[in-house]
Amino acid sequence: MADSAPLPFRAAVDALRGARLRPEIEIDPTRPPQRLAPYAYALEAAVVENDEDLADGRLVLLHDPSGHDAWQGTFRLVTLVRAELEPEMAADPLLPEVCWSWLTGALRARGLSAGEASGTVTRAGSHYFGGLSERPPASQIEIRASWTPREGSGGVPDAGAHLAAWCDLLCQIAGLPPAGPGDGSVVSLPQRRGPLSP
Fold it and tell me: What does the pLDDT look like over 75-118, one tens digit per residue?
């Protein structure tokens, strides 16, 4: 990140770097998109248990010091989260609504607001043929979303808390039990059978 980046953006990135996350989360910075905003910072994460990737995702922090009408603010968080499902779970007609509620619920559980939230929940099934015919059918769920974090003092959002909420979502879609107290009513997806196919 360039030293010339605005102070609020640098503070938000520092908060992302300093966030304390569950031990199952493996997270690394990655190349951010170049054209969505003047300043961007991106992270890739995977939920790993017993050397198995259960879910993965990407979170991008965008910043436009001039503000953005569609965002209703100067910061925006953009995400992609995906995991493989058991076929019977993927067939549940309420699955998209449930997965979207996990995102909004993860933010609310940490006392965070998500202005101008939007996104999609997509489920897909794969059947393999030819040289791949020995693979069993696979079903995947994918959440693409973006929201505007509320800016606090100095125009800086609590980016670390938003990252922690996003990781809560990632763990939930991976099928892990809740980590924090008071989360016992949360229902997670059953753990998937194996890594996502390329």
Answer: 999 999 999 887 777 777 888 898 999 999 999 999 998 899 99
Q: What is residue 3's predicted lDDT score, i.e. its pLDDT? A: 65
| pTM given for the model | 0.84
Contacts of 36-43 with CB under 8 Å at 24 or more apart are 36/60, 36/62, 36/78, 37/62, 37/63, 37/64, 37/68, 37/76, 38/63, 38/64, 38/65, 39/5, 39/6, 39/9, 39/63, 39/64, 39/65, 41/1, 41/9, 41/12, 41/13, 41/16, 43/16, 43/163
CA-based angle 17:18:23, to the nearest 5?
Answer: 95
